[in-house]
Queue: 3 jobs
Job 1
Amino acid sequence: MIFSYFPPMSVHESDDVATGFPLKALVEELRSRCEAVARLQGGFTYFIEEIGIFRDYVKQRGHILASPPAALNRPPDDEGNEHQVWFLSDSNSFLKATWPGFYGLLVIHRPHEELKASPIDYLERWLLHNELFGDDVRFIGALEDEGKFRMLIRQPAIAGVPATGEQIERFFTGNGWLRFVVDGETAFFDPKRQVVISDTHRGNLILMDDGLLAPIDLRVQPVTGALLDIVRKLCESAPDL
């Protein structure tokens, strides 16, 4: 299945957005660079370090866009806390651009670590989203302005309506996800894949005409080590609904 926002009623001019790059190779290379830095210094890479690793990578690979796609010259069709969104009628897809210097939030983080996701976290999130939910999100490139990046992705569109809270709960728990609460927000943990998700509000899961649910814009994060232990304990102590 291919997921995204339900298309708006308006139809726009032809777009000039490239097909984009598959995420798997990008994320594997970026994570490999993070691991190399972590081995040298001991411990983990943090937000500022990952900004630098990402900057070096996109410059070397030519992923910094020389100019914005034409769609960005018109008002967005939608916007939220993380993205501005433009519908591309030629390809029945959406172009999403993060706000400058903001790449979403982590589901859970280590003590003294940034709650904000890095550009590398952001791309890994969408790779996991593709793998878990059958989507086909691709990386278009990055715009840089005064040292701050805007991440551009392309996501196929579908038709549907926002799912209800009951449908969302049933969708995850019925597929083996364990519910927990972190920072006052409902999240879910897949113990098999050791992945957590959050931001599961109605606008981020679409009920399609065939009755199936399509996640379109969730926070997705792998957990290991101490974070994995914390999530397991949160699941054990999660209140019943």
Note: Residues 161-236 form one domain.
Job 2
Amino acid sequence: MTPKPETPTEPTASDDYEPIAPGVYARAQARGQEVLRASLLDVAAQLLAAEGPAALTMRRIATEAGCSTMVLYKHFGSKDAIASALYLEGFARLKRHLDSVPRTEDPAEHLAALGRAYRENALAEPNFYDVMHGTGIPGFTPDAEATEAATQSLAVLHEAAQRCITEGIFRPEADATEITEVLWAAAHGVISLERTGHIPASTAAARYRTLTAAAAASFAATPAPTA
């Protein structure tokens, strides 16, 4: 007979292990429900990164956060809903970071600053970044509502691209949606190579600037000929 695979067990008080986020529930609870919800997602994201999707159970997350499973069911409803919540939280954090970038008089500089902010957020939130881009939780597929929320997180980038068109930096026939998607793809490609070690940390920022600048330059307006 083929032996049955062992079922993963949850850690008990007798296990010699350190919780990922000891005391997070009590501290976050004192600061309000939104902070509590975000803190629980932080724990789930850290657990996912440290041990993989098999560890992403309601009981395990509750154990690491120092709360009951009922708290998780109250905020998320189910284990599957946590995957969607992680996805949405990742893009919500990205949106807040991009929206905080000051708008400058030079639209090209504003666009470049948004690009730098995108990389900063990706490196600061690696546990969420993988869920946001489809590699963190096997089998998870965001629904239409979640995908729309992800698109809206880049609204400020789309606006900056349109401003570059309006002010003559990009070609008048250029499409702001296409520009946004091309810049997003370029940024994600370099970040992925950086995070997997294919581009050394010492040169990653420079490579990022080079590729995103080249992507933006492909939409540049043709200078008027001089007399």
Note: The chain has two domains: 19-77, 79-217.
Job 3
Amino acid sequence: MSLIIYFLRHGETTASQAGGYCGTLDPDLTPEGYQMAEDFANFYKSLSWAAVYSSPLRRTVAMAKPLCDSAGIQMQLKEGLREISYGRWESKTPKEVNIEFHDDYIRWLSDPGWNAPTGGERGVDVSRRGSLVIDEIEKECRSGNVLIVSHKATIRIMLSVLIGIDVGRYRDRISMPVASISIVEMAENGPLLHVMGDRSFLSEDLRKRIEA
């Protein structure tokens, strides 16, 4: 059996609803976000899990906990899975950032791989720390199902690296709604993407919720 990595974005937060940049900020899940975590656990608890890795932020830990409890598996927290740092843009909307940090914002939009939010991280910085986590997982789990619970930008960047997309285009090529799962098999000929941004495990009412 190959190593199969499930990338799960955390559920809904007040920040994901408001539409402001949220990287190092640490909001909790909304009640609906907690239900998204329960829906994921109920759907996937029968799968045999080799390991569960999570960003240490509250929203990802809360997303991973119901599955860990159901499966009886210990969550492993990894700093490399944190969300990208948005620096001085944290909590601000794109409109506000465009006004206050216009030049930096335009540079970042053109290539977020090599340009950072003001005082924040570049995409390539996130790709390096994310790749270290993947390397560690491959050493510890040569086969089986592994869950990674992380964040919107971090997951998109990690997927870009695995499937050969320019990191500078991660925002243009990959959509990653809250509480969505993407599945990559670490196959003999390289990473093979099976599923991208799936939310079919959510109840109908939760699937209809659209983040800002």
Note: The first strand starts at residue 3 and ends at 9.
